[in-house]
Structure formats: C-alpha cells, structure tokens
Amino acid sequence: MDTQNPSAPPRAQSALTGNPARSRHHTGGVIHENTRHTERFTVIGNHLTQHRELSLLAIGLGCHLQSLPTGTPADIKSLTARFKEGATRIAAALRELETHGYLRRERVRTSTGRIITRTISCNQPGHHRRPADTDCPTPPRTAHRPEPRPRKALPAVPQPTQAAATALHQQATDLLTGLRRHDPRLLLSATDTAHLAPGVIAWLEREVTPTTVRHALTTDLPDTPLRRPAALLAHRLTAQLPPPPPYRTPATAPPPVRHKLRTCDTCDRAFRAPETETHCRDCRTAAPPLPREHGTAPDR
Questions:
Q1: Which long-range contacts (CB under 8 A, 24 or more apart) does 285-288 make?
Q2: In whole angstroms, what is the distance from residue 47 CA to residue 52 CA?
Q3: CA distance 204 to 214
Q4: pLDDT tens digits for 206-262?
Q5: Which of 293, 291, 287 is nearest to 271 (CA)?
Q6: Which of 115, 152, 207, 280 is spaced 20 to 30 A from 129 at the CA atom?
Q7: Which of 239, 237, 225 has its CA nearest to residue 187?
Q8: What percent of the chain has pLDDT over 90?
Q9: What pTM was estimated for this model as a whole?
C-alpha cells in the first residue's frame, strides 16, 4: 500500500496552466515589473535599445543623450566627467550614434563670431527636424524680398487755359474734395486731387455748372469696391468732356458816320459835316446844305 510523504514539496503547477502563452520548454528570461511613470521619464524607441549594430556603450549613451534637458553640455569632455568610460570609448560610441542617425553635430557661428559645435540628439533616425533653441542661435538668413511693382500712373485729364486754371482752381478743388460726401469710396488723396483738378477746370471753362460736373462723376458708379477711384474719375473727365460752347458773334457795330463836303448858301463857305447836319458851322444858317458828290468821305 502506497503512503504519502508529507514532507515532499507539492508538484509545481504546469506552465501551460498558469501562463498558456508561455512555452513549455522556456522557463527562464526577463520578467517585467512595470510601474506607470507620471514624471521624470523619457520615451525611447526599441529601435535604439535593441539595435543589432550598435554597441552596448553606444545604446546606453544614446539613451542618456535623449534623456538630457535641452541645452545640457554633451561634448566628450562633459561625458567623460560624468561616466567612468574614457574619452576614447565615448568618442567611438558617439561616432556609432552619428553613423546610424541618432546623433548629428553641427558647427555654427554665434553672434559674437565664435564657432561652436552643436550636438543634436535624434530619437527617430531619418526624420530631420528643426534643432532645439539654445543660447547660441544660428545667424538669421536674409530673406530675398521682391521689389514692389511701381504703381501705374493715373490717366491724363483735359488741360484748361492758363487763365481758367488760375481763376477756377479753388472751385475745382472744393468740388473734388466734396465727392466723398456723395460716395465714401470717392475719398481722394491730395496727390489725386491735384492731378484731377485741371480736368474739372476744363469742364468749368466750357460753361458747365459744378452741379453738372459732380453729377457726371458720381452717377452710375459700379457696385463693386473701387480699387482706384482717381483713375475712374480721370477716365470720366476725359471721355465725357462736353464740347466747347458755341461761338457768339459780337454785336454789330453802328455804321460809321459819313461826312460830306458842304457849301453854305449864305456865307458861301465850304465845310465838312455829317449828312444829317443842316446848319452852317460859321453863320449857323438853317438853310439845307448842298452836297458835292466828289467830297464824300467816312468819318475819321
């Protein structure tokens, strides 16, 4: 009859029963006891920690560089003072990281003209990102800005005579500056007003009233925003310029007074007098004069 040994240890639980995903033939290996980090941690990709071509020193140094705050010295001298490995081994590990894209070193010039080496740690090789800001920024590049295009000149306007330009200048200027009261889009600058004033004077010189000029400039404007109101007004002043007023023939002058050589019957003296005169200038005789045909002549 079989007896049980109470001191014998119980049979170990089958691996498949406790952890079905675990293989029956692999009883060793790493077991993780993980605690969730909420502060002071760094996310590092397995492509670095399990890299097959990097040495253990290079992997450890790469993890250390990714955990450093921005601006922390990462040159060979600083790393040698931090770790027990010598400068030769640390330099070789840095070259490994640089070869596989986990490290990039650039030589930049500071604002004072000094040249320094900037170490850039890349947590994902092949993704070139803008380097972190430090106390020694890269000198800014001068951006090439295209030159602004020259503004097109305003269309020409009719030109008045010199006398009208002097007499009607203030009236034309007041008319142009008052257009904004009829339409706020017709707000003109001083330069535009000086350019358009001669065109308005040319209208006023042709006996057009200021009300008519204002109506021609403000009627039937487009509903869209006016990009250059001065150009529109210049076009209207030229295209709608009225013709000059009709020429007025001056009033007919009275015919010249014609004088005739006359002889007085009383004093028998000859004198030159108008045809309507019937008295002698010497004796004042009222007898009618006797005209002589060869003595007629116009008054001088």
A1: none
A2: 9
A3: 11
A4: 989 999 999 999 999 988 888 899 999 999 999 999 998 887 666 666 666 666 666
A5: 291
A6: 115
A7: 225
A8: 25
A9: 0.37
